[in-house]
Amino acid sequence: MREIILLKLGEVVLKGLNRHSFEETLLQNIRRRLAGLGEFDVRELQSTIYVTPRGGEDLFEAQERLKKVFGIASLTRARETEKNMDAILEAAAEYLRPQLSAARTFKVESKRSDKKFPLNSPQICAKAGDYLLGRFPNLRVNVVEPDYTVRIEVRDRAAYVHGNALRGAGGMPVGTSGKAAVLISGGIDSPVAAWMTARRGAELVAVHFASPPYTSERAEQKVKDLLAKVGTYAGRVVMFTVPFAHVQEQILQNCPEDLFTVLMRRMMMRCAEAIARREGCGALVTGESLGQVASQTMEAIACTDAVAGMPVFRPLIGMDKVDIVALANRIDTYELSIQPYEDCCTIFTPKHPRTRPALESMEKAERPLDCAALAADCVARAKRTLISPLE
Ligand code: ATP
Ligand code: MG
To answer: What is the pLDDT of residue 107?
Structure first.
């Protein structure tokens, strides 16, 4: 019989009346992620999603992709068998032969959702345990701490045999929490913040500030590459590249140097918010973490937020850098992030930034600037690119 992939839903199962639309979105996301790999039948029954290849599709690659789909708690490849005990036992011995040959101890767990099946779960376990002990003389039963667990599920349409499940990406299906605009640099933090936001079900729009001629084409490409990586989880991302050199020059020429970074951050917020509104986003997202640098003290963040007319999410606010780096490694953005390309934030950094700026001094410092006009001009010149997930 066939080999398929079984997916268990995550938090989606907690959703009452919205459950159906959550599941539909998840199925759609799964189909989209598998589209390039061939023909798969994807359907949901009793809180489990069945992914069945129609031909000789590569299940290894399919599983690798499904590990990155938000909304899935766990996944496993499984052998589908007829619903009779002989077929199930034979399938278990054959399909799990490599693992069972290598193990010293094992146990069997079983679940029977088809209550018409003649044996109940304990009886299935006992029978399968006996059978496998006979077939694999290397094995002993250990129900407390087995090397390997054989799992047998008897469901409505068929029975399934598999081993340990892999952990899924968790979270909520992308598209079930609306859209958010993430301010993305080429650094370590903002791609992680983007990932965390997508994991809670938000579709991402990305806003990147570039300052040619001070920043290079290559620096912008790095951000695109990062988004393509995050996209293996978040799906396609629309990116806006906003030309920012003129704004930075205006701040530099007209405002006190020690306030430069937060003044720039306030301009970024104004531009990002305009784009976010136009794109139907309900929040802005940054990669800031409390106290990490001068512009991320509580006072500096207050000055930044004062110009934002929509919620600003900072998923990393309470994380240490080592934790952020660990997460960046897990989602495979770290190596790209540490490539040394200039960012618009690093080209004009004041020597002694004010760490506890007051809002009144910010507003006073901005008086020579026409902030609304500067932001409108940037947004009008922003370039739109559609970033597809890196395959
Ligand atoms: P990161 O690793 O994300 O660059 P960082 O610790 O270097 O973070 P800053 O450079 O102070 O921090 O930037 C703080 C946040 O401001 C970033 O996480 C990002 O959300 C936003 N940001 C910084 N530079 C840019 C940029 N060029 N374009 C868009 N957003 C930016
Ligand atoms: Mg940065």
So the answer is: 97
